[in-house]
């Protein structure tokens, strides 16, 4: 089946968080896509909506089976039914885990730059963020294991929130890297939360490795958060899963999610997720090809037309991580300037930790015409910024 990702989708006036902006602005910041979801998912939701009654909803065996089959087929990892707990989203799950598995004033490690909402889940619950900066050589990010061991060895450190693949730098972590992380966390009694919401959005020919699949220590000391929402543009359905192989840890997370009332689905959460995992594969494969072409087009444009900035190479996500340090260390000021002068709305790198200063994040999950518009605005804004 052919899928038309060039088709424009007007999201203004739909209560879209991303598109609730001024008429002249082009939002390329928050991580949702400007594509319609797979037709098979639309059909399933429309059929459910046609029933007309929207009461409390159970979690059927089909939901568990769809996730099991998907992960076993696409990622060669068998998830047992008993390991899974439904939740309303990855962020609610992380926040619940922070509250249940750590105590106030304890420390949570983040490998920065990293997804900004991790900071909120820690700080809003009275815990301390410890930034462990990734090493960066101008092209590639990696884990600084000497620094990581130092922060994990602190008795006040009780949790590591891990992003696999990594947002915003687009890194697919290797088995060896994750095994070393797992060993260190096990050694120092630090539990791992692995956010794997971007796991399907890898470049064609690239695949991610589930953290829990790497070793027995990784499996027994981790909580994995998964969802179809980023992959299939379903964030508004509030549907996700937490996968916890260890029975004792799983009971604590089950209690956390139920105490926070985050373990019951809305009426479309089951329908959308099941349809995605059962029928969404072909659409996803076509999407990955399209996103990769967008990424290549953006990289070529930036290299040729805006040589003062540098696109960090990535293997996953639809987010560009752009190094602007040659022209400024103040990415917040630069992002504000671009928005004011060109209408291009990007994310400032400082949101993702101290090491994000001097970087911008750009969402390219959009039709090619929108991408070209965004790149032209970026070029014009950068040129104006340099010579102002």
Automatic annotation (TrEMBL):
GO terms for molecular function: cysteine-S-conjugate beta-lyase activity; pyridoxal phosphate binding. Residues 32-378 form the Aminotransferase class I/classII large domain. Its cofactor is pyridoxal 5'-phosphate. The keyword Transcription regulation does not apply. It comes from the Bacteria. Keywords: Lyase, Pyridoxal phosphate. This is cysteine-S-conjugate beta-lyase. It comes from Sellimonas catena.
